[in-house]
């Protein structure tokens, strides 16, 4: 068993009615071995702390009382508005139970309404699978030539000036200056000595960020950062490759952890299991080993790309990612029926 694919099958998000900064979520993953029929579901519960300026995940284990109690049996199904103690469900999605999420997420669970959400991969990635936040972000980032971009800006500026002049000519009292556009304040250019001093090591520590955020952190323009990348042999900003690997590693980590915990709880009843159940248990252990092997390969590839960002993803990783996308697409289609 070389590859195991985990697909988000359910997601429920709860807010605390007494502590408005407390948020919990329940995530269900469908785990299937590539090319096999054996599959099972694993569920995890996570806790977060939200504030107007930040969003962070609290370390496990989740403080009692839990939304997923230790003795829960069967598949939990949540719906919007459901109360579990002091916790109220504000978002529910379930591909198996056909619980369809709202067309848009609540503001606190949207990157446009809460930019800090992107700093919590465990929640953001699963929300992204449900709502597809990045459908409009498919334009390659290092493809626009700086000279072409500058020409477009100049043309826009000339058009704006022409419009301003025509408005002024048609004004009854041109001496008042009313209707003229306000002068555009040009941003200060970065110091040339500072730009020349930026090395590949300085740039590499921001590969995990989008290129615009990286340029702001480095205090230089995006076009300048692109030129520096080409100077060091980097044709495209590697943020998307690293983010893709992080997402795959993240999914595998939660599936491995939850699968191992489930195996320990059932160890005591091992002698009572029938031969068929023993075979299923063996398949699960094989799957855990395959998951761990895959996770180690992805981590190694991420380190390599961080050191050599011009390298492309391995063909095996691309195939694995394609399998994950296909399963997530099928799960989403089931949910919308």
From TrEMBL:
Swiss-Prot/TrEMBL keywords: Coiled coil, DNA-binding, Nucleus, Transcription, Transcription regulation
Residue ranges of every copy of the RWP-RK domain listed in the record: 180-265
Bilayer-spanning residue ranges: none
UniProt keyword tRNA processing present: no
A GO molecular function held by the record: DNA-binding transcription factor activity
Ranges of biased composition (kind: Acidic residues): 164-175
Residue ranges of the region described as Disordered: 137-188, 265-285
Biased composition (Basic and acidic residues): 149-160, 275-285
Function recorded in the entry: Putative transcription factor.
Protein name: RWP-RK domain-containing protein
